[in-house]
Input
Amino acid sequence: MESETLIESAINILNTSDPFEKARLGDSVAVRWLEGAIAEPYDPSVDFPVPDRPARLTNVKLVSPSLMPKLGRAGSLQSRQAIVHSLVHTESWAIDLSWDIIARFGKQEKMPRDFFTDFVRVAQDEGRHFTLLAARLEEIGSRYGALPAHDGLWDSAAATSQDLLARLAIEHCVHEARGLDVLPTTISRFRNGGDHETADLLERVVYPEEITHCAAGVKWFKYLCARSKHPEFTNDSKESDDSEEEIINKFHSVVREHFRGPLKPPFNAQARKTAGFGPQWYEPLAVKESNA
Output
């Protein structure tokens, strides 16, 4: 029997409904890929169907984002449970999004091996975040599925399912970066509420790793833009100042096409800078575009 490719493994994960099993399976696949036990990203001669929507359990009540109850400011146990539950749900989707970008776009866009490795690492991180936060949620007296949630993250993934450039921009450079903006405040609120265990988990594990996830989006957005102009472009090629400006303009265009409304300040400029993009990328998008 021929060994399974990475894309086959990714599709198996996407078709796994239990998020805890999804995280465990994802970690196993990541280890095997990073150690070389899974040798090939895909078989050029075989196409596997990527599910339109990943398999999910039905134990989480889904509501429209506009109908979500307020999470509060972590001052009460109920509020802390609600915030952690929201984070667990977000991470459950982040697992799917990471494997989906591999399965949906890796072969289709003929991406280099580093692309697969970067998003395997992201997927592995997201699975670990989910598992740790779900365990923490139980420690503070709740469980995943006890509260309502929304699927806004997947809605934007579905809307960018035909366009890798848009997927990278919206999921990784808008949504993930928004997480970087709000996490420091969330951490402070847990500390102020006396929940140092959750604050430490977010500050020491989730926050620094989420910066690298945003960085992966920026890196591969730049790569695709450069490759579209210079097919011989590699990650080792040096961009010119002109190409950087063109890439930023392209980013603005893609975000305005695929994201409703302006971006919300305040921005975490330091974390965003660490992830590889400065204020010229996002500050112009915080202003509502004139129709004049």
Observations:
- The mean pLDDT is 92.
- The chain has two domains: 1-152, 163-292.
- The chain has ten helices and no strands.
